Every structure is written in structure tokens, then in C-alpha cells.
Amino acid sequence: MTKLSRAFYTGDDVVQIARNLLGQVLIVNKGSGYFEARIVETEAYNGRTDAACHAHNNRFTERTQIMYEEGGVAYVYLCYGIHNLFNIVTNTKGKADAVLVRAVEPIKGIKEMMVNRGKTQMDYTLTSGPGSLTQALGIKKTDYGEDLLGSSIWIEEDEGLSDTQVVTKPRIGVDYAGEDALLPWRFYEKGNPWVSRK
DNA sequence: TAGGTGATCTTG
DNA sequence: AAGATCACCTAT
């Protein structure tokens, strides 16, 4: 297996990148445990055209600044006061795009994921949903800005999915974005039980 | 279906 | 400096 390259992340089309991340394998290795999980659900956010994106209208704040960096770094932020959401920054420096990882299928480190989630029984809620998967994998705001070509969080290239395996839908929880909430920028693997809100 | 939760952003 | 908002989750 090989790490996804910088060139993969610096591509100009965040929607296509979100779709192509399906089936790739997210690795977290931070001393708190070693985890592998297959990405099965993503959403694209485009800073220049998309009212749902935190960086819409060139909004440049302490929180959003990382999205303006060159692709291939982590954007982690706290949502609803409780949940850390994990995003992958894409595009070249100055173009603020990101892909939200909404669900993963656990491969390695499942016992430790259950400990992190406070679960005694195995079930599909372990890593389905953007807040749940970060808790399972131990991703926190201290991972903000982490280089995805480094050695603590990265993505291994795997076989992608064919178009017949990919479902395309509007994004979740972005009603505030008006008509941009209707954009079909959510992608997930057809029939995969780990996908959130099926 | 509603409430918890707190950093972040905007307004005045 | 304060109030509104918010890319969610869990248990009724």
C-alpha cells in the first residue's frame, strides 16, 4: 500500500476528490492506538462557490485559515459544542476547499475504538457519522493542521469504487445554505451498513 | 423529536 | 462584550 500523494489532495475539483476518497483507507497512529478504517461516506465543500462552506465569501478566521493552505492537511473543528469533525483540506494554496469524512468502516483497532466510544457491544453506530468516527479513532482538535503525508494521520491508496457502487445525494445538515443545500455533493458506498442516515 | 453543549462568529 | 449559531448524537 502507498500513501495518497500530495497531487491527489491539491486537485482543483473537490467534488471529484470527495467521490474518489470512497474506498481509500484512513490510518490514525498517534500513540493512543493504531487504527485503520475504510472511508465509505464523504461530503465536498467548496470555499468559492458554496454557501455551506465555512470559508464561503473568503471568510478567513482562526478556524478556517487551514482551509486556505495547500491540500493534504487536516481541518478539525468542534461542532455543536460536543463533536470534533474531521475534514481533509484540498486544492492549492489560497483556494479553500475541504472534504468532510462522514463515515468509515473499521478494519483494525476495533477493540480500542469500542473503548473510545464507551461501547461493550459491537454495532454499526461505532463509526457511522462524522462525530462518532472521530471519537472512535481518537481524532481531536489537536490534530488541526496535521499533515496527511506525515506519520500520525494519513490515507492509504486502495482500489476505488466504480460509478455503479457510488450513491450521490445532497449533503446533511446544511439547510442554512439555501439552494446550495441541494447540491449533490454527498457520496457514499451503495449498500454499505456503516453509512450514516441511510 | 428534543435537548445537551461550548467554541466561534457577528453585531452593536 | 454579548447573543446567536451550529457540516451532530443519544435517549425518550
Short description:
By secondary structure, the chain is α+β, with helices and mostly antiparallel strands. The protein has 4 helices and 8 strands.
Biggest sheet statistics: 8 strands, antiparallel
Beta-strand content estimate: 25-35%
> How far is the N terminus from the C terminus?
30 Å
Please, what is the average pLDDT?
96
Fold and architecture overview:
- The structure is a single chain.
- By secondary structure, the chain is an alpha+beta fold.
- The chain has 4 helices and 8 strands.
- Strands 1, 2, 3, 4, 5, 6, 7 and 8 form an 8-stranded antiparallel β-sheet that branches.
- Helix 3 packs across helix 4.
- The longest helix has 8 residues.
- The model has no long low-confidence stretch (mean pLDDT about 95).
- It binds a DNA duplex (12 and 12 nucleotides) through strand 3, strand 4 and helix 4.
Task: Summarize the topology.
Elements: H1 6-9, H2 14-20, E1 25-29, E2 34-46, E3 74-79, E4 83-90, E5 97-108, H3 110-117, H4 130-137, E6 153-156, E7 166-169, E8 186-189
Antiparallel strand pairs: 1-2, 1-6, 2-5, 2-8, 3-4, 4-5, 7-8
Helix pairs in contact: 3-4
This protein binds a DNA duplex (12 and 12 nucleotides) through strand 3, strand 4 and helix 4.
List keywords for this structure.
alpha+beta, single chain, 8-stranded antiparallel beta sheet, DNA-binding, 8 strands, 198 residues
